[in-house]
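Crash report, auto-generated. Payload:
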Amino acid sequence: MNVECNLEKVSAYAESLRGEYESNLKKLVSLASVSMEPDRKSEMLQTADLAVQMLIEKGASAKIVNTAGQPVVVGEFHAGSEFPTVTVYNHLDVQPADAAEWQTPPFDMQIEDGVYRGRGTTDDKGPALAVMYAAAYVHKLGVPINIKFIWELEEEIGSPSFAQFLADNISELATNSIVVSDTIWVSRERPAIPYGLRGLQGFLFKLKTGLKDVHSGTTGGLARNPIAELCDLIAQCFDAKSGEVKIPGFYDDVRPVNEEELSNFVASGFDVDNFKKAHELLHTRTEDAREASARIWARPTFEVHGITGGYAGPGVKTIIPHQAEAKISMRLVPDQNPAKIINQVEAFVRSINADVELVREGTLKPFIGEFSGPFNLAAKAAMKAGFGKEAAFTREGGSIGAVVSMQEIMQVPIVFLGLSLPEHGYHAINENFDWQQASGGMRMFVDYFERLSKIK
Amino acid sequence: MNVECNLEKVSAYAESLRGEYESNLKKLVSLASVSMEPDRKSEMLQTADLAVQMLIEKGASAKIVNTAGQPVVVGEFHAGSEFPTVTVYNHLDVQPADAAEWQTPPFDMQIEDGVYRGRGTTDDKGPALAVMYAAAYVHKLGVPINIKFIWELEEEIGSPSFAQFLADNISELATNSIVVSDTIWVSRERPAIPYGLRGLQGFLFKLKTGLKDVHSGTTGGLARNPIAELCDLIAQCFDAKSGEVKIPGFYDDVRPVNEEELSNFVASGFDVDNFKKAHELLHTRTEDAREASARIWARPTFEVHGITGGYAGPGVKTIIPHQAEAKISMRLVPDQNPAKIINQVEAFVRSINADVELVREGTLKPFIGEFSGPFNLAAKAAMKAGFGKEAAFTREGGSIGAVVSMQEIMQVPIVFLGLSLPEHGYHAINENFDWQQASGGMRMFVDYFERLSKIK
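Recovered output after restart:
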């Protein structure tokens, strides 16, 4: 079989299933599987049940695996143990949604001209269903590949139970490669395949210089000012204007970005003006697209998220605070190691201000996947088959904890074949997905699975 | 008459009036004249009425003068227009009090072993009454001096109507000197006469880099961080550890403190350990008493009171804020000029970060009074007469706007003869005053008025 020659058939298959796809997506969206909200236990379980049912209806085996947190749905279209296996990762939990801000109710999916508006449509229920239909088609055709599914329900809260789930089920989950379908193109005009994620190391910098706030008239000049000392420390940690981190050794393990990567970044359609508009930024640290894309995707950062402890009301109140806390995090890139970064930061802060207490917050390792190799070549070809355009290889600036866990525990190649677009309102109000991306995604995944069946 | 020879008589007079003093102070304290609280209008007017009535009962003329804000009580013991005039400044408004935190109800004065506990006892109703009884005694004896009173009711909110009141009534208020009785000794062991106050210039430093908070994964490295840029600006404005201000020209007009002044500061009983205990500071910028007292009384400061705009909840949330505001003020000392300081700060901030918007907040000029001269000599001698100990000449680190207004508009010497002690809980819970300071204060003021009657 050569699927490339049969793309018209796949398109026809997709069109024939459009009603079913839309109906099933609407059912999934109607369950408010908001993992951040503790009172959604029932919706989470109903979502898992519905997902199992949908997989079974299409001819897969499927079940719920319980964890210490939310369950994970696993499933498989089994072709034969002598054939290669690919595992698809999606998640079925969603971000919260404030109905008052939406054009239409977030959990009652509306269809308008092929656009599906509702929470979870693009992140990540719509892509999950598109992959499922592609897999069902491939399986029905008898393509010699086993297609496994991992549908998580805790992605939006940082996957707290996921590493343990993988470790506990490692033999059952055995696979030759993983495809993650939960990323965003840079522009609708150009498919994008990210191959790297940034990591994260958070800290609280805390300084206490007294037991109560004091009056700057009575004590000013003699009393220490903990906010000002944290400002000084932060200014020594990094240059706020350029963003350059000044902590010794911080950049030692940063993998340089080569010319080919930079060209790919810009080829994705990345544009500084569009980026500014999308994020409502008045200024950026550079206007150069090449430099800008490297900054957000391939370079580490130092960020101050807030400083608390002082007067926060209107105007000026002349207190000297007795304590202050700066909320800090660093985005890390390959091959930075969070453990080493923690040591560097702690030593540096101690050297600048020994009274500052450091509290370590969350750690996420950076991720770098296949930039070349058979899986990436297959992904690129599949993108072309699905959407008629060459894909650009990019990275993502955020962190997906589940991906790093899969890399560490399952130790197989991971590729990203996402279907979301900037205009889909990922994590925002009026989130949406569309049939153009869903049907193109089906074509792409059919092609991808067919190609993978030939990689031994 | 030589009052110095009659101090025993004054003491006997004071003792004979102790019951009346305590009863009147209790009446004044029972009226919660909290100028910060808008719903105290009735208590403010009752306080003014009661004050007028008390002055009239002791033989003075007295009346209420209305202003755009709270009224001012003015009064006079008139001896004759051919004699010199002294004006006493006190205030009858008080700080707020949270009854739940107090040992006894703040507006129901308790008397225990000669200690008067209640809001306003030491700041400033108790001292005001002590001066009134001293003036009544001097007047009855026929000492040739006119003693005028200005009792303000807006001191605790920065005297917003006071300058206009002075300007509107300048001829009626004509005087040869002013004595302000609203300051605190450094230690009960040693009377203190401050002769200087620091001024103040407040600012908001505001920076806006976007229209909404963004995600540090998606935008970090390219988006500017307004909190971090303000930290950098603050670190360039002053050295948080030493307190040294780095804005060019900032120290140009600072009047140097000479050896005699420094010796006086320390002679007041100033002690760094006691200061740390009183203000519950864990550390101070110096442990040296001479250096420490100069820092709080005679040197300018740069202070950060708070930084808002970022994430303020628990832990770390990886946003990049779109705006930030630092709440800044500088304490100023003689002969710094706030208008010049404003220009220096604005030019410096512009040179470091042109996107930062500066908003000017409150301005209070620094004050320097008589360090020598006949009024200060009289004050020193009167302190010795009243309390049996040599007074130390100190300064105060805070700002009293009313004093600067009196200096500018009335243009006569101003001296400070305060009666409050550190243990009196000025602006704190369980505020108190005591008969030892009240009766010593009466002796001191009798002696002071008698001396002033001889200064032509």
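Post-recovery validation: The mean pLDDT of chain B is 95.
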